[in-house]
Specification:
elongated, 81% helix, 200 residues, mainly alpha, disordered N terminus, Four Helix Bundle (Hemerythrin (Met), subunit A)
Length: 200
């Protein structure tokens, strides 16, 4: 960078490589970003978070199919024969195979997707209500399953936990079917409408 004196006594910078133009353009972009409506920035961020969560949730849904069948069967069988140690171990294994995935899955929906759905003016309230009710039921069933140990619990506790495990697997399967059939497509339509509307 060279400095030369102007006739008026001011200092001006001159760049022989065009850096001044690039810096000027960068400053214009930065000013435009700062001027952008913070609400629009928040909406864009929320939309990106929902899109990422939706992709992750859909992927998790597709991986859970066989595990849910195994959990439903293991729960039903151990509920009928709670004294059988092999059946207890199979029920524990089935529950452990879905427990962490489901905890993360439900949390993602409750922390990202549901708040976004509720923030949308025209989002069907029946889908929101159904999702919330299913989450409440799944969490209650999960607490029932977790309250007992399939390995060391009494026959009565194992019967109750096995029954809850079967109900949990069936309820979760219903939730996943509803997500894939109704909820996720509606979210995608809303996201697409939102992004095309903001570009207009």
């Amino acid at each position: 960078m060279r400095y030369s004196l102007c006739e008026r006594g001011h200092v001006e910078s001159t760049f022989s490589d065009g850096t001044l133009g690039a810096m000027s353009k960068a400053m214009e972009v930065e000013m435009a970003v700062k001027k952008e409506n913070p609400v629009q920035l928040d909406q864009k961020l929320a939309t990106a978070q929902v899109e990422a969560a939706l992709a992750r949730l859909s992927n998790e849904d597709s991986k859970l199919g066989e595990r849910l069948i195994n959990a439903a069967v293991a729960g039903a069988v151990v509920a009928r024969q709670p004294a059988d140690t092999i059946l207890r171990a199979e029920a524990a294994e089935a529950w452990n195979s879905i427990k962490t995935v489901i905890a993360h899955h439900l949390s993602s929906e409750e922390e990202i997707v549901l708040p976004w759905m509720k923030s949308q003016q025209n989002f069907p309230s029946d889908l929101i209500l159904r999702t919330c009710e299913q989450h409440i039921r799944l969490r209650a069933l999960a607490r029932t399953v977790d309250a007992a140990s399939f390995i060391t619990g009494s026959d009565e506790e194992v019967t109750k936990a096995g029954t809850a495990l079967t109900a949990f697997a069936v309820c979760l399967d219903d939730l996943i079917d509803g997500e894939e059939r109704d909820l996720f497509p509606m979210i995608q339509r809303s996201l697409f409408g939102e992004s095309s509307g903001s570009g207009a």
